[in-house]
Amino acid sequence: MTDSDQKFIEIKGVSKNFGEVIAVDNVDLEIKKGELFSILGASGSGKTTLLRILAGLEVPSQGSVLIDGVDMTTVAPYDRPVNIMFQNYALFPHMSVFENIAYGLKKEGMEKEGIQEKVERMLALVKLEGYENRKPNQLSGGQSQRVALARSLIKEPKVLLLDEPMAALDKKLRQSTQFELMDIHYELGITFVIVTHDQEEAMTLSDRIAIMEQGQFVQIGSPNLIYENPKSKFVADFLGNINLLEATVTEQSDDRIVVKCEALGGELELNNQDQSNTSQMTVALRPEKVMIEKTMPTENEQKFVKGMVEDFGYFGNLSIYRVRTESDHIIQVSKQNRDRVEQSIKWDDEVYLTWENESLMLLGE
Question: Where are the beta strands (DSSP E) in the chain?
């Protein structure tokens, strides 16, 4: 949650080359004060290099970085109002939890009473009261992460950079820790910038997400906006599961487009949001937007396709189906398991798939 709409971090025309390799390619970005912002991308997309530029650990080949209106492009890391929490936490193994958290304050020469007060506050914030005398090898992964977080926050930076902060945690602990991190961010109001390859993590934590590919941002927006309105096939496919189905334009006007999509049973009439001149398009449909039943729909106007369940996976809260349609296309469907009964739809069952027209997204090539 942001404190205001003012731009707090400004990245202007930043590039970073390593020899002939362009890691970051002329990117612009504005992050608001108090925002929890995620940079999401696959390995090699340039996200970690950009984080290191923000931290001052790398100097851009061109462009500038401003924090709170001050040009930080060539400022050393220790002179920036920024702290970074690394993926491996980098705790000192010979120091206690208290000493790890207090390390930065001791280096600055703060008085003992002030250190004690601030460390106690941080221990309470990260829910580690009573752990101050333990060594890192006596902590779980989640506890080690919270010590690293407390150490990063104790000097009250204007910006906290987090590099894959949940990567070392198991799935259940990762989910609970995400909410703890959101609570800490809300309480402190510090601007958080997270770099991650984990889509679920970015979706859960972020006010906004920037998706990065080959050193550039391909879409920036709220998690809901990007998920429901991707600008490209890459973004649609990268964020969550999706059916990407070939289509050919048959009619087109300023506000309406008709496409032929064999996978979805023929012609579909949609709002023309893409305004593309190409005749080849892609119809995108999220698995959770598809209804699956063993009985034929009764409504005459209801679009549907018939198929057979080729694969089926039970995940407790939901079931995933891969249905081969009569047109020999595979459509993936996710169905919420609301009742405590045995699955009524299984392998080789004949099924009917339906969807709302508003759930279809049309993407250019």
Answer: 7-18, 21-32, 36-41, 62-67, 70-71, 82-85, 159-163, 191-196, 208-213, 216-221, 243-252, 256-261, 266-271, 280-285, 290-293, 304-314, 318-325, 330-336, 350-355, 361-364
